[in-house]
Each structure stands twice: as C-alpha cells, then as structure tokens.
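PROTEIN DESIGN WORKSHEET
SECTION A - STRUCTURE
LENGTH: 303
TOKENS:
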C-alpha cells in the first residue's frame, strides 16, 4: 500500500536555498574548446567542451541560427530522464532518441541560440561499464556523506553553461530562457531560483511537488534529494525565490509527474502574478508538437 502526503509543510518562512544545497562547487576558468561545427541548414550546430570543475569537463551542443542580425535570445534546453542514461544532449538536438524531444533544434530553427549539455550521469557523463546504467544514486550518496548535494552540482553546472552562453557575442545576455521536459521540467523550477539571469522558464511535465511524491509510482529523483527540505518547504517556496523570471507550468492531466499542477499554479500566482501561466493538456507524459509550440510562443513573448 502506498502513502501520499498532500498537506503543505507547516512553519515555513522565507526559503534560503543555499541552506539546503550545501557547498556549491567553485567556479573555474571555462577553457572552452569547439570540437566541431556542422551546418544543419537553418542553423549551425557546434559541439563545445568547457570546464565545470578543476578536473571535470562537460560537452554540450550549441545551435546558432543562420543570418543573425545581432545578439539573439538564448535558451538552455535540459534533456529528459526516462531512465535513458545513454541519452542526453543528443536527444534535444535531434541526433538520437524521440523526435518530440528535439526542442533545442526546433528553437534554433525559430531564431534562438540554444545550449544543451549532458547532465551528470547521462550520455558522455555516464561512466558505467555499459554506458547506460543508473549512476545517479552513487553520485548522490558520495556527495551526501561529505555534506554536499547532487542538486548543488547540477545547478552549478547550469549556471556555468550560462556563463559560457552569455560570453558569446551572438547571445543577448539579458534574454536568457530555460526549457525542459520531465527531469528538465523539474530543473526549470529550480534553475531560475539559483541563477537570476533566467528571464523566462518553461517547466513541462515536471511540476510534481514533494508532498505528492511519497508514493511508489513516483518517489523522489536522486538529483532532488535535499535532507530536511520537505519538512518545511516545497516547490512553491522555490519558485518564490524567482526574481523577475516568467514561468509557464505545462502539464498533462494524466501525467503522474504533473500531479498538483493546479495547486502549484494557484500558490505561485500569489507571488509571481501575471508572470506565471498554466497550460493543461488532456494527455500523459508526452511533449507533442502543439505543446512545444505553446512553449516556444511563451519564450518568444517573454524574452
């Protein structure tokens, strides 16, 4: 029998995110290297590599539209989870996996510069023997015993990608967006609370709060394990840390990872006002063309 808590934690005050994240990795020199450039017709796809730590390099795809007349808005495109640890950045640029996940490619075709790195444990960041096994709990546990969290590392890496993105002359650093589905949709709620350069964020099929996650069919993803956090806070408190970020909560009515979307929207509406929108679809855990077009229009309107 499963148990699902639905009450909002009591005794909450203003959230200090770093209280729960623990120590954040130090910034290092990016030492950017461009590994390849491929002309894809309406845009150029670059594969770049940069440092996120003293001994840690990350690969990412950057898609740059042709015929830019000036600095363009840019979007961080976070890949999904789906237990496909062999996939990451390649899926969101349309090189592998589900074509409905190729939103970094489609945004580039619409005039946005996009960046898509591998998250920890995915694609080139997966060090398991078969390159496809779940190493997330190792990455979490080996940090927790040292007083650190996996989420701090993940958010640090997003911020580092934005450091690189905003250093490019073809990017308007005042118009930075974020888009993600599933795992990426969850990160779309945390990243703007950590890095205020994100002016607009789209969370698709990833808005389930902690209080609705205590059931066997969902549980807590390793990346979002913060000891003690849910005793006092939940996602609406994270979103309350947004500065001027506009947010689209996009959710499927039959998607378990979208549970609580209406409650979350109502709660954050008191904080964000007209900067938050809700899109509900009679669907499950999918990212259809119509859903993506709504997300793209939101980013276009808000950036």
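SECTION B - SEQUENCE
RESIDUE ASSIGNMENT:
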């Amino acid at each position: 029998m499963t148990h699902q808590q639905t009450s909002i934690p009591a005794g909450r005050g203003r959230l200090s995110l770093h209280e729960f994240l623990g120590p954040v990795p130090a910034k290092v020199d990016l030492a950017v290297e461009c590994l390849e450039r491929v002309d894809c017709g309406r845009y150029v796809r670059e594969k770049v590599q940069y440092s996120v730590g003293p001994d840690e390099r990350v690969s990412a795809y950057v898609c740059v539209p042709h015929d830019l007349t000036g600095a363009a808005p840019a979007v961080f495109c976070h890949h999904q989870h789906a237990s496909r640890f062999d996939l990451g950045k390649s899926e969101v640029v349309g090189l592998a996996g589900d074509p409905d996940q190729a939103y970094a490619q489609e945004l580039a075709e619409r005039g946005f510069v996009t960046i898509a790195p591998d998250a920890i444990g995915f694609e080139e960041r997966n060090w398991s023997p078969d390159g496809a096994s779940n190493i997330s709990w190792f990455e979490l546990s080996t940090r927790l015993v040292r007083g650190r969290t996996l989420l701090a590392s993940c958010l640090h890496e997003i911020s580092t990608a934005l450091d690189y993105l905003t250093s490019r002359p073809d990017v308007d650093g005042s118009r930075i967006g974020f888009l993600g589905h599933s795992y990426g949709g969850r990160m779309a709620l945390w990243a703007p609370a950590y890095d205020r350069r994100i002016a607009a964020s789209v969370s698709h099929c990833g808005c389930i709060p902690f209080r609705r996650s205590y059931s066997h069919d969902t549980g807590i993803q390793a990346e979002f394990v913060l000891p003690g956090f849910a005793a006092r806070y939940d996602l609406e408190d994270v979103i309350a840390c947004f500065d001027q970020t506009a947010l689209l909560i996009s959710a499927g009515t039959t998607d378990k990872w979208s549970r609580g979307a209406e409650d979350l929207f109502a709660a954050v509406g008191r904080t964000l006002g007209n900067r938050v929108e809700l899109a509900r679809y009679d669907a499950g855990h999918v990212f259809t063309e119509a859903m993506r077009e709504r997300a793209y229009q939101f980013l276009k309107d808000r950036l």
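SECTION C - NOTES
Confidence is low (pLDDT under 50) at residues 1-8.
The beta strands are 33-39, 43-53, 56-65, 72-78, 113-117, 171-181, 198-204, 246-252, 276-281.
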